[in-house]
Design brief:
alpha+beta, Alpha-Beta Plaits, 4-stranded antiparallel beta sheet, globular
Length: 65
C-alpha cells in the first residue's frame, strides 16, 4: 500500500473523483482516505507513474508520502 498526498483533495466530490480514477485503472484497488490530511493510501497492481498520471489528468496531482 502506497500513501499519496493530494493537496487539491478537499471535499467528498474530490474524494469520489480520486476513487473513480483509481478504480478505473484497477477495479481491484483498495483505497483508504484521510481527508483532513489530504492523503490516500492505495493498494494497487498498477505502476506508480500510471497512477500519478491518471490522477494528474483528473485534476488531482499526487506525490508519494
Amino acid at each position: 500500500m502506497t500513501t499519496y498526498s493530494i493537496p487539491a483533495m478537499s471535499c467528498g466530490h474530490c474524494r469520489a473523483t480520486v476513487e473513480k480514477t483509481v478504480l478505473g485503472l484497477d477495479p481491484a484497488a483498495t483505497l483508504s482516505f484521510d481527508m483532513p490530511a489530504r492523503t490516500v493510501a492505495i493498494n494497487t497492481q498498477r505502476d506508480d507513474a500510471q497512477l500519478r498520471a491518471a490522477l494528474q489528468d483528473a485534476g488531482y496531482p499526487a506525490a508519494m508520502v
